[in-house]
Amino acid sequence: MSFYPQSTDHVPSDLIVDFDFFEVPADVSDPVDIWHGLVRRGAPPIFYTPRNGGHWVFLRYSDIAEAYRNHEIFSTHKAQIPPLEPYPVLQPNGVDPPQHDVFRKILAPMFTPLAVRRMTEGLQHRAEGLISGFASKGGCDFVKDYAAKFPTGTFLELFGLPEARLPEFLRISDTFFRSTDPDVRAANLLEIFEVLEELFREKERNPGNDIASTVVQSRDADGNPFPWEDIINCGFLLFVAGLDTVTNTMAYVWRYLATSPDARQKFRDRLDDPSAFLLAIEELMRINAVSSIYRRVTHDCEFKGVQFRRNDRVVLPNTVANRDPSIFRDPQTIDLDRKVNNHVTFGLGPHRCIGSHLAKREIMISLQEWLRHIPEFELDPDQDADSIFGGPVMGFTSLKLRW
Predict the structure, then answer these.
(1) Of 34, 78, 318, 358, which has the fewest CB atoms closer than 10 Å, so is most exposed?
(2) How confident is the model over 334-360, as pLDDT tens digits?
(3) Of 16, 67, 66, 72, residue with least CA distance to 44
(4) Most distant CA pair in the chain: distance in Å?
(5) Cα separation values, 213 from 142, 201, 242, 375, Å
(6) Binning pLDDT at 50, 70 and 90, where does residue 248 land?
(7) 385 in the Ramachandran plot: left (φ > 0), alpha (ψ -120 to 50) or beta?
(8) Torsion region of 308: left, alpha or beta (phi above 0 gives left; psi -120 to 50 gives alpha)
(9) How far is CA 3 from CA 98, 172, 301, 343, in A?
(10) 152 and 205 in contact (C-beta within 8 Å)?
(11) Mapping DSSP to helix (H, G, I), strand (E, B) and coil, where does residue 72 land?
(12) Which Pfam families match (predicted)?
């Protein structure tokens, strides 16, 4: 069965906008303006772009939220942009309810708030080790020296892999998230599969106390092992889901704090108040949503007065939803005491990010340890001009800080 989009003769000309979310306009210094520039220019709340294989874009919080929740129309299965076949059916996010419940139930106990709290000591040790390596140097490239290494190192530990493989995994994930070249992307997928095949076969022979071992030893309702392809695809999801998003969220958070002395002081004042600290982090997660999520239309239908055709792709930009003035009071203002904060940074509905508690804990511990070592810091005026990138996860390849 083909999951490629069909013709576009159902798309009215007034809903077509020439827009490429991978492309950074020359005058943009912040990747979020790739999206918010659309809103300022008055783009239709639902529009179609012929770029990257052709896809729809939703710009209203209410439409984005409904697309997250309504898997009967907006499926996660085979939703890649640009379309790429063959593409792995990620478990559990690449299938819809009820099939996705199988692997989600396996993974969920490992990412509960209690399970994540038990990781605190290890996360603190990793953060302290990285930060102490450059704290006395008066500056660093935050992305290269910390934000890329910390979540990837955490992934390696959770999967029972040695820290020595960090450069390899950084390279692989960078290609996965950045490249739009079909040949490069296909080769990258093969490499990821080879790595996961080796990992899970080793855990099958020598299981340990880690996520990979738990997944490979899990059994279905009849006591049988799960299909090997599903096990590998579950590993694939965990590989791509928790690395780049955390790295780039961190880059945005530290970029803001480097230019906001009052905000740094607020966080320093809350170092011994985890609840207030986390409340402030939630606001930074809202304003700094770095991911745009894909969906595929399951059948010809009408949604909000717009005609959709089976296999049409849809992009849901979280950064736009999180600044919708119909939902958030003063949405462009960063309010570290914001009490009502229904952001969609981790999605909504059945596919809401299972690792959200871990992501927030990684950022909280990183910031706590950073402020203990480096309470004051600022942006280095010598930034790399070409460090900005767009795509499904946007951010910076470099962020130079000094203190």
Answers:
(1) 78
(2) 999 999 999 999 999 999 999 999 999
(3) 16
(4) 61
(5) 32, 10, 18, 39
(6) very high
(7) alpha
(8) beta
(9) 20, 26, 16, 31
(10) no
(11) coil
(12) p450
Let me know how many helices (H) and strands (E) the chain has, helices first. Answer: 16, 12
Q: What is d(CA 369, CA 121) in angstroms, rounded to the nearest whole number?
A: 12
- The bridge status of strand 313-317 relative to strand 55-58 is parallel
Give the Cα separation of 362 and 20 in Å (integer). Answer: 31
Q: Taking the C-alpha atoms of 148, 154, 160 and 166 in order, what is their torsion angle to the nearest 10 degrees?
A: 20
| 20: nearest Cα among 293, 390, 396 | 390
Question: Do the bridges between strand 292-297 and strand 313-317 make them parallel or antiparallel, or are there none, so unpaired?
Answer: antiparallel
Distance of CA 320 to the CA centre of its chain: 15
Residue positions counted in the chain: 403
Query: 166: which 2 tokens?
Result: 């960090």
pTM for the full predicted model: 0.93
What residue has token string 């890649």?
80
Q: How far is CA 27 from CA 256, 291, 388, in A?
A: 20, 21, 11
CB 45, CB 143: distance < 8 Å:
no
- CA separation for the pair 206, 203 (Å, rounded): 5
3-state secondary structure of 113: helix
The side-by-side arrangement of strands in the sheet containing 139-141 is 139-141, 400-402, 378-379
Q: 231 near 200, Cβ under 8 Å?
A: yes
Residue 344 CB contacts under 8 Å (≥ 6 apart), including other chains: 61, 64, 65, 68, 289, 318, 321, 322
Check: CB of residue 344 under 8 Å from CB of residue 322: yes
pLDDT digits (tens, 9 = 90+) for 227-238: 999 999 888 888
Q: Indicate if the pLDDT at residue 198 is higher than 90.
A: yes
Query: Which residues have C-beta within 8 Å of that of residue 336, sequence separation ≥ 6?
Result: 263, 266, 267, 279, 280, 283, 284
